[in-house]
Write a structure and sequence with these properties.
The chain is an all-alpha fold.
Length: 118
């Protein structure tokens, strides 16, 4: 006979909507290695390195197929800005806290918050 018992700990299936405990502040490996870094990249592009991203995008639009050659400087400046924020521990902590708050709200309500599109 096959067991139908869940292999996930109760904290991942508990909560008001069966989505996990809203008060759980622990992070899974996928959250620390994929989801939080993704949030950091998105926030850095949208909030911290706006000028650099805009300059690079404008250069690419103007250069068409030659963008690989013509936009090297803009790309370097943009990558440098993004890397500085990506390696900033305070920024990482702020993004982690924002992620945990979003996850907690989702687990509490069952409603996903729409991500802001850049």
């Amino acid at each position: 006979m096959v067991s139908t018992k869940s292999v996930l700990p109760d904290k991942y299936s508990a909560g008001p909507h069966g989505l996990g405990d809203p008060e759980d502040r622990s992070l899974r490996k996928v959250e620390t290695e994929v989801l939080i870094p993704k949030l950091m990249r998105e926030k850095a592009k949208a909030e911290k390195c706006v000028k650099e991203v805009t300059d690079f995008n404008q250069c690419c639009k103007e250069s068409s197929l030659l963008m690989v050659i013509k936009c090297r400087d803009e790309n370097s400046v943009m990558k440098s800005c993004l890397a500085s924020w990506y390696n900033n521990e305070d920024f990482r902590q702020a993004c982690t806290e924002e992620y945990l708050n979003q996850r907690s709200e989702y687990r509490r309500t069952g409603v996903k918050k729409a991500m802001k599109r850049i």
